[in-house]
Structure formats: C-alpha cells, structure tokens
Specification:
359 residues; alpha+beta; homotetramer; 26% helix
Chain lengths: 359, 359, 359, 359
C-alpha cells in the first residue's frame, strides 16, 4: 500500500534523496538460508554506477552498498535486509538555479502542486539516484531465482535501432551502451557525443529478457505477470511506454499470425513455434523467454535554454547546468534487470504459496 | 494483495466465470453520500455489451447490473457496493472441442501449468467477460470524480490509423468502432468484415484521455500515476503494450523537443506549450490531459486451423468455433475508460488523505 | 488495504447489510484442486444460524449458501470463490423506532459521525449478520488445513465460569451454549432465560483452540500469529478483549512459572511441559495448541429503556424491540472458529511461500 | 503485506537486530510540511531507553536517532522518512551460552522451526530492541495528530494493582514505573528489587489512553479501530492480551449497565454518561477517551535454571545471564503510546480520504 514499496511477498521499500546523507532499501520477505554478502550486490551497482564512461553523468559516486541487517553468519535469516548506500559527491550548489524555476519535463512543478514544497537539490526523491536502491534490492531478488537468467540491453538509441541479425550477447558488456550490436554501438558513440555537445539529450528503447522462467508464474486478472512488469518498468524514471513480446506491433498482426502455435517438445511439454506473446499468456508465464521493452524519454535536463515559469508564476528561461546523463536509457538497463528480478522472485513465492510445490 | 482486486483506497474485487451463473464486483472504500442507482451504471455496460453490432461477438448478454449492497435511500453509505451481472447466454457446448486442446494465444496451457486444472468453458476466468465487472465498478468510480471527463477511442485498427487532423469527438459514439475519424470508421467496416469472413481477427490501438485532472494526483516512485495506469491497462485482456503521452515516440525525440515548456497561464498557474508528457511528470499529474494508449492484440480465437497440442502432449489442430469478437480492441475502449476512472478516483482519495484538502 | 477484506494470501472480502437482498463473501487466493461444494459450508452456517434455540434471536434465516464462482467439476480452480446468502426474514419495520435515536452501545452514533448518514435497518453493515459471511469463508479455509482441528466453546456466561475439571469435548455440541461443562450449561439456561425475561442481556467469554498447528507458522514483529489472531477476533462484533494462552493471567505470574519448559519429545522434537504461551512464541507457532480467548460484551439491544439522544441532538429514551440475542457470545463461537481457520490457512500459505516446502 | 511493516496510509517498516550495527524504521505516507527534527523524536526514545533506572536492563544504549531522509529545510516533504539508531553496547558474548539451547518462553525454538536457522545474538529480530524503532516512528505519527493526547501508564505490576482513586497524572513521570499511583510505585520498587534478586521477573498491565480523538475515526468490519489497536498492541514483544474499555470485565456486566447512555452535550453533540466502550463503538471512535489495556508477561529471561533442550534435541538446563529487564512491561508503556499514535494518525488519514474534510 505504501508509496515507496514494491512487491507482494518479496517486498522492498526505498528511501533517500539524491542530496541527503544516504539512500537505501529494505528487502522484506526474503527466504532464509540464502548466502548473501555485499559482494553479491556490488557488481550490479557497479553496472549502474554513474561516471563509468563519458556517456553518462560525471557525478562520481562509488555506490558502495552496506548490508545493515538480516544476515547471520553470511546467510539470510528471513528478517528484513536493510541496504544502505552513502551519497558522496552531492554538489547542491549545482542546483541553486533551479530552486526557483520549474525545469520543463521534470517533476519540479508537479511536486510543488502535490506537496506544496519540494526538495530541489538534485531532484530530491525524483532523482534517478533512487534507482540504485532498486539495483541493490534486485541483487537480493536474483538469489531467489538462480535458475533464471535476466539480460537487459538497448535496442534503439536516439532513434537508431540495432540490427537484430547482428545480435551478439557477448557484445552487451563490451561497450558502454549495453548494446548487443557492435556496429550500432559504434554509431551511438557519435550520436551521444553529438547530443552532449549540443547540450541536448537522447531517448532509448531497452529490452529486458528473462530466460528459464518456468510455465505457471503469474496470476490472472489484476496480478498478471505482464501487468506487474508494466508497473515495475513504468515506475522507472523517464520510462514512458512498456510492451510485452510483440507489444504495439501485435496490434498490426492478424490473429493467426500473432498466436504462437505449439508442437510437442522433446520433454513432452508444449514447444512454441514463435514468441509473439513475450512469454506471457493470460497473465501467466508460458515457459518461453519473458520479453519486455520500455521507452526511455530523453533526459529533460538540457543545456539548451527552455521557456518556463517560477514558483511565483513569473515567466523565465532555464538551462540545466548540473551533471546529467545525455541518455538516461543507458543506465536504465541495469535498473530494468533489477525490476525484472524483483517481479519474478515475488511471483515465484506467490506461486509456491498457492500451489505448495517448491517450483 | 489479492489476485482479483485492484486499487488502494477505492478498491474493487471481481469474481465469476464466463459460464457460471453470474459475474460481479465489490467496490470498497467508496465515500458515503453519493447518489447511485443501477441507472448510473447500466449505460456504461451497454457500451461494452456484446452483440450490439456485427463487429463484435454475437453472444447475447443483456448485462443487466444489480446493486446488492452499500446503498440506503439511493445513496452510498460507505459500505462495500456489491454489483452482480447474471450470465444469460452461456453456450458451453460451443467450447467442447477446446476442453482437450490448448488454443494458441490463449491462457489454456498456462492455466493448466499454474493450477493443474482449468475451467475450459468460455475461458473461465480469463474470458473478456470479466471486464464487464470492471465497467460496472468504473461507473461507481466516475461518481467520485465528476470534474473529470474520460474518453476512450480507437486510433488504429488492423494497422490502419486515424487521421488526427480529422479528429471529431462527436463521431466517437456515432460508429461501432469508437472511432473519432468518420473516414477511418468507414474503412474499418470493410477491414473487420474481411477479417471475420477470413476466420481471422485484427488488433487495435486504443487511446484513453482524461481531461480536467487537477495537478498533484499520483505519487513518486512505486505509486506513480503512470505506473498505476500501466498496470491497470495491461491487466485488460489482450493488451500487450501501454504508453503515456508521446510514449515510445518519446524515445526518438531530443530532450529539448520532448520536454514541455511552460508559460504563465491566465489563472496564474503554469500553462504548458505541449503535452508530450501525457499529463504526468515524475508520477504526478500536471493538470494537462492524461493520455494513455494501449495495444490490443488480435483475438487468438480464429476459425483458421492452428497447430497445437492437447493436455496429454499429443499434437493436433484446432479452430475456434465459439462466438468471438473479430477485434477485441473495439470493446476494449469502454473497459479502458473504466480502468482510467478507477485509477483516478483512487488517486484522488489518496491525495486528499496525504494533503488533507478536499481536492 | 480495503476495509472489508481480511487476510494476506488467502484473502476474503464481505459485503451486504442485514436488511438488503443478500450478504456474501469472496474468497481469493485459494489453492486449486480442493473438493468443494455447498455441503462443505452449510453445516458451519447451521451452527451459527439464528433461531435454533430459544437462547438466540428468533429471526428465522435459513442461511443457505450458494457458490457463485471459482469451481469447476466440483473442485476449486484458483479463481475467486464467491459465496452468497440470501436474506429472507428481514423485518425492517422492527427498526423504525431506531431510525431517529441513537441506541446506546450500538454503532448508530458513530456511523453518523463517520459517514454523515447510516442504514438504520437492523444495524446495516454493523449487524452481526455480517458474521455469516465469515463462517462461510471460514469453511473454505478449513479445506486448506485439514490437519488442524479447531474448536470454540464458551468458558463463561454472564460471569458464571465453567469448571475446567469437568471439561467434556463431546458436551460442546450437546447443549445450545457450546458449553463443555454440562453442569454449567444447565445453570446458563436459567441465566439466559432470566436475562431475556428482564429485557436485559449477558456477556460471555469464548475460548478457541486449534490443535495440530505445526511449529513455524506466523512471523515476527507485525505479522505475528498472535497479532493476526488479535485483529481477527477483535473484528468480531461485540468482542472487547482478546488474550492468548495465559493472557492477562500471565501478568500475574513470575517468569520462571510462565515460561514453558521443554524436554525431549518422543519424536525428537521439543515437548513442552506446559502451555502458558498458548502455542505462540515470538509470533510463531510452537506446535502446541493455539489458544485464544475473547470477551463478548452483552448485547446492547435491551428492552429496558435507556437514555439517549436523537440525530438532532434532542434527549429521548429508547428500548430496543427487534429480535435480538440475549447473549451474542453464544453465536460468537462458530464465528471465532471461522476466523481461526482463516488466519491459520493464510499463515500456512505465507509459510510455504517463504520456506518453499509444502508444510 | 510485508511482515515488518505496519499501517495502511501512514505506514512504517522496521529493520535491524539487537546485535547488528544499527536498527531503524522508514515512515512512509507522511503528509508534507510538518516541522520535524531529531529533537522531536529523541525525548520519546529517552523514555524507552534502557539503563535509566535500576529497574530496567543495564544495557547502555544512548539510542540517538538520526533522520536520514524525507526532510527539506526542517520540514517533511512527503517522501519516506528514514530513521536510524546505532547499536552501541552490544555484548554478543553474553549470549554465547544460548546459541545452542532454546530458552524457555523465548522465540529461539520457533525461529529455528520457521527459518531453519536463527540469529541468537540477543534474540536477533525478536529482541525488544526493535521497539525503539516503533517509538521513533511513533514520534513522527504524533505530529499528524497534535490535537490528540496519548498517555500510557502501568496499572498493575507483579499482580499488585494501583488504586484508581489515587490516580495522579503528574505522578506518571515522577517514578521509574510510569505509575499514576505514588503509593503503588513505592510498593513496586520492593517488588521489582525482590524479583531481580531472586533472578526472577514480573509481569505488568499497561493502560494507554488517547484523549481528544474525534468521533468518526475507524471503520466497520475488518479495519475496526479496536481491531487495529489489538493487532498493534499484540505485536509488541511480551504482550499476551489486549482489551478495550471495560474489556474482559464487560463479559460480566448486563447489557443495560455496559451500554453507555447519552445525553445532550453543551456543544449539541451526544455526551456519554460512562465509557465502558473505551471510546469505540462498531469499530469507530465515539469522541470519548480511547482506552486500551494490555498484559505483559514476565520476561522469560531469568537467572533461575530452567529445563530445556538444545537444537540437537538433547535435554539441558539454561539460566539467562544477559542483562535483562526484570519487568519488560515498564518500558512497554512508551511503546504502547507509539503504537497508539501510529494507529490513530493512520486512521485520521484514512478518514479524510473517505470523507474529504480535513478532520
């Protein structure tokens, strides 16, 4: 029910502002007996960490996670796991010019409209820094579903799409864009450099695929696996669209093309001949890859002057001078993976609650 | 938490199968003192009702709603409102051929995988008939937000998009497609007739717009207004994608184009010069139109024979002979409106809980 | 989150007023594959049914339950189970005199204070009739925990306590008071007759015991098994106190007396030498009997004239003329059993979600 | 839904073990604009702090709270408020003898039964130290209900009750027992000294009263104000019983005595002539004092040797040598106040959500 929590049985809550002393997450409902240390979490945070290439914000945050509770002798106890990440490089002065004026495309005005006040330092709670807490929580969730492999990558940046025929899984970690197509990655370097030099920014489309999800996770109606993924992904900063499998493209197919036919698999279970459904039928996993795509808008923090008003209603111009990602979609990929892990781990627990078998 | 409930403060739960005696919804958390009778609900059900044109299923359901609780002398009391709709025209025999085989694109296999058994009569719980309960609940939700106007319409059918320049609000109710472009509506008649004659089906894109939503509804992080809308819409049968405002298109814009600039409005509050954001920034409403679009896949119930397997794993073919919508997206429009109403009414209550003013 | 729902994974919601057309419950989250028919529910309703002896209200309600959804070929499908009980013998005229005045000890004034209006027919939503829905839902819950035996009985009525040494399990169903002490039952006949003749009413203390609950159900901190039982039982109409095991008596024992010592049991697991704890330590079941006691206040519906005010604030007198139970605690026993079953079944699902074994 | 969270709209989650680096709470859903600093929280923690007299544990914890998020320029922003308290004086060695054996009356065995492992250092999550987080969260809740006065005190210790006629509100803070009867406080010194010298412990009964709660807070059925208080109080360590108003005593009164009569008050609203109901009717506040009493069992940590078994099932004896409260009920009083504040603040938000007025 709370505004800063996500999940049903495996449930995490995040806290902290971009420019406070720290941010963090509590992961509740974790099964006991799992081996866990900071070393299981840190690598995922490092993937999301700012400042790792010239294509992300130059804010320097080590993003070192500390486990504050829920462990005993290196294993989870079933108690809440409190994760904390200190903020190190918060330069509040960078934001002084936005204290008075509403940045277009940002939550400045809406926070004021909702709360009557706002923490303007770095966007406060609306900063993408909150997503570090998700990545940390997601690392815990991964321990619950070791059978599942989760992989997020960019399939489009600034309107330039990858060539699916050139898809190379190993390329994803070999360039600063989580791009599975080396040629596209090379083109994107110039694209992003150009946008940054212009004081502009670019959008992106991220695809997140979970492999080895067993058939049967999810639920009909309001707890559909795809509906859970939709809210999970749409809750990520800058995401404006979510689609499953064929997604919007399915609206342009005919029924007999879109429906995935089945043959008998070698293990006796159905083998699908295609995966337009993206691994979900009727809200429940089919056993195929679960495929989600999401659209990241271009950062609204641009150096190009924009027309706006201030809190008093006076018209003004603003250009954002803080250190920002020219394309937030890049660092969105690790966040998407974390949200996928959190949703799937939660669904696994829900499923075995209702069915009773350990599956 | 439950699988068949939706909402936080205004919360509804639905029950019932396509081929049981009835379906229904309970609406909980409704403020007291609202005038309510069946006449406030029935017109919305009539819009979703099957069999109103040759472009929807020929199942004949009067869909008459009965209010079973929560009223006293014509007004809501704050108690749960139980709504019931009897099933009249359930022809179970139509489905006898699907008892054994898994229909491609349907939830048959996944229900078996999850539950170990399934109610194959008309899809049971996965039938689009469940959405009648949503429409009934949505009619109650509308009473909480009389200031808001909600309108859903098809912007694309079978890959054929409307001409935005020809948008005519009054046309929406003047054709069987909820289509705001009369010329497109005329073309769609032929499209749908053709698909039905082929034993095929078509997808559609529905747009749902809420006007007069005040700035300040929603919440940051995991209860974002857009994240709530995403799960609400993705939970509708056959929806495979959801986008807000510019949606996936935003990923192809530059930051300075996508961010909506502001000038001083006549009322002293910010006036936006565009609405790429679709009325939501940082998860909170801006006061502009809230714009959601969703992709409906083509019905997987097609007469064209499809390859599949049965519960025993044997390979077979199946062609669906029941009475089905050639384009479920059409009747999805009233459902989208209902879900929009339910989300917004819930957010209104949440907002005034946290802020205390009646707004 | 909703006001009329209870439970976490096995979750039920009730609706309906005493004088509406029907009342009902939806049970959500039930595992699939359980054999269920009306015959599994009706006997429990019959135990709570009014009019079975001269010691309960003379309202004649057959309380026939109808299962409206969630079944296929006699088994649960995992879909919500909708249960409906028609109201037959609602005499609204009996309540006309209370439309204007607030009955002391009833919710009349508080409903007006909260909602600004109230359904005064038979107490509307605050009628004990709502508990029939709980009993029906509880019958479903029992199917999930066939290993557990649940038994509720009166240990005190009108201040007259049973003799624990005379406890006879078979006596409980052999008298109209669910009294395990035949001598006390005989005395209570005169007590209740006397109170009814005086136009007065009596309170009672009900004990509910669950046997064969395995060690390990429940959770620390805010989902303690005893805390769940406390809210479950306190939510029953007229209950004013709840205690676990030794309860308030524990506050008068010394630590070394109250703490239950352990020896090695024949099965190798701990055997407790006493059960002051009532089967719960640290919020988790010990494997011993789970023992809850609750205090029912005397019905506030008395024929003796009471001083009160009306909605306009004018002073008046009122004597309740409707058909009422002289001791609501009697019919509280089957309700307590139902709530115990609902809590335990829910905890079983939660436990296997977190632990993964089917236990 | 989570196991370590409490509340509906104002919701807090706690984390941390007795012997970890820190404990803490997140308060979510707090309205914006409230003045808050550590100085608003610390005094309440100081009341619960161990080591303030010889009648509580000699563990020395400064219990200094630090606000980690949710504030801007001294005011709440509507974002989650993260509160952290470092553990300073954790002597793990004190507990080494209990690593192997199950302490009678403690959660040692049940934690092992549930989780398969346990953090035996100081009871881990089941330590009363968790209640410091509640007190900190409760201090925030108090800011939401400045109109309400909350007061908890001991009415019985070791079976020795106060004289209600000698009730002196000012005495409560003038002795180490939160005892409103100075003569009883004097007697209790000897009682507690005697128990401690014997290596034993004592129980207590705490009463918590909230004054100035407006009529109309709460909800019927499963979110009754008294049901919420019951789960809140029963979730406190060592509490074994909860009663509202007359409580168990109500079961011994006749209906016409127990029902609180009404006359017209000077403000035109009903004035009750008694308060057997404890300020709650039908789950909704009456405007009278809300009165809750709870029974604390005697600490199970006693120096007197107790028979028990170890994790391997071998029989042994144990005497607890750690620093413990001879009567945990004493420090339970500030915790009860905190839980009362948290429940009432939550209900205030829920009420204005449903009614819309700021009341």
């Amino acid at each position: 029910m709370s505004f800063n929590s996500f999940g049903r049985l495996l449930r995490f809550s995040t806290w902290g502002e971009s420019h406070g002393p720290a941010i963090g997450a509590i992961v509740d409902g974790c099964p006991p007996g799992l081996n866990l240390s900071e070393a299981d979490i840190q690598p995922w945070l490092d993937k999301r960490r700012p400042g790792t290439s010239r294509f992300t914000t130059q804010r320097r945050e080590p993003d070192l996670v500390r486990i504050m509770s829920g462990l005993f002798e290196g294993r989870t106890t079933g108690a809440p796991i409190s994760l904390m990440i200190e903020n190190v490089d918060q330069r509040s002065k960078d934001y002084s010019n936005i204290a008075g004026a509403y940045r277009p495309g940002h939550a400045d005005y809406t926070y004021d409209a909702k709360y009557g006040l706002r923490d303007w330092r770095g966007g406060g709670r609306s900063s993408a820094r909150e997503t570090a807490s998700r990545v940390a929580a997601g690392a815990v969730a991964r321990l619950l579903i070791p059978e599942v492999r989760i992989r997020a990558f960019l399939v489009e940046l600034g309107g330039d799409a990858i060539d699916r025929a050139a898809f190379d899984d190993e390329a994803i970690d070999a360039n600063p864009f989580f791009c599975p197509d080396p040629a596209a990655a090379a083109r994107w370097e110039a694209l992003v450099d150009g946008a940054r030099n212009d004081g502009s920014s670019l959008g992106a489309i991220v695809e997140c695929v979970a492999t080895n999800v067993p058939a049967g996770w999810g639920a009909p109606v309001y707890a559909k696996l795809d509906a859970e993924l939709a809210t999970a992904m749409m809750s990520i900063n800058a995401v404006k669209g979510v689609e499953i499998g064929e997604g919007f493209g399915a609206a342009r197919l005919r029924g007999e093309v879109n429906a995935d036919e089945m043959r008998r698999g070698e293990d006796g279970r159905p083998r699908f001949l295609s995966n337009h459904a993206g691994g979900v039928l009727g809200g429940i996993s089919t056993g195929q890859d679960v495929v989600v795509r999401m659209a990241f808008k271009p950062t609204s923090s641009v150096r190009i002057p924009m027309r706006t008003v201030d809190a008093g209603g006076e018209e003004t111009e603003i250009s954002t001078k803080g250190r920002h990602d020219p394309c937030v979609g890049i660092r969105g990929a690790p966040v998407a993976e974390a949200m996928m892990a959190l949703v799937l781990a939660d669904q696994k627990l829900l499923h075995r609650a209702q069915r009773g078998e350990d599956r």
